[in-house]
Design brief:
The protein folds into 2 domains: 123 residues, Nuclear Transport Factor 2, Chain: A; 47 residues, no CATH class. By secondary structure, the protein is an alpha+beta fold. The chain is globular. Helices cover 42% and strands 18% of the residues. The N and C termini lie far apart (42 Å).
């Protein structure tokens, strides 16, 4: 059975350029808050470019993980030039571990974040402020509930950055 840490270490060792994002990134940065917790999926942000996306697909398939784009087999989406605007592909590994690999993200610059990644246990992780920033912009209520549920604090600098982006509205308004 594949676990998230093992999968991410293997992916990093395969030289596919990526950074861990989302709840997975926060769990890796704050392991004591997630003891005994199995997150339902792994979220990563790939470096820009079709070569990187294809390298990720090859990595997943070499581990017998089917890869889809919005529920459609990857080959079909790729052949039909339907990948643009879909933002991510999904691979399902043994044991039910799901990996969502974003290859387009308007809020996060993959190349910059990969260069600024914090490495823990052989896994590149997005800087925490950028993790929270992205989570709050995606769904502020969900981000706040997540922080409360796991006893995490959203940095005030992130909240201020979000206020500036939203035109001085508080997140969730």
């Amino acid at each position: 059975m594949t676990d998230a840490r093992s999968l991410l270490r293997q992916l990093a060792a395969s030289n596919v350029p990526f950074v861990t994002i989302g709840s997975t990134g926060l769990a890796l940065l704050h392991p004591s808050h997630f003891t005994g917790t199995r997150l339902p999926d792994v979220d990563i942000l790939l470096a820009r470019g079709m070569d990187t996306l294809l390298a990720f697909v090859h990595f997943a398939r070499s581990r017998n993980a089917p890869v889809t784009s919005w529920g459609e087999p990857f080959e079909l989406a790729h052949r039909n030039n339907a990948l643009e605007g879909r933002f991510y592909v999904r691979a399902r590994f043994d044991g039910g571990l799901q990996c969502d690999a974003s290859y387009e993200n308007a809020r996060l610059d993959a190349d910059v974040l990969i260069g600024r990644a914090q490495w823990i246990d052989g896994i590149p992780i997005c800087p925490e402020e950028d993790l929270w920033f992205s989570k709050i912009l995606a769904d502020s209520g969900k981000a706040m509930r997540f922080a409360f549920e796991y006893g995490l604090e959203i940095p005030s600098s992130v909240l201020e950055r979000v206020r500036v982006i939203l035109g001085n509205q508080a997140p969730g308004q």
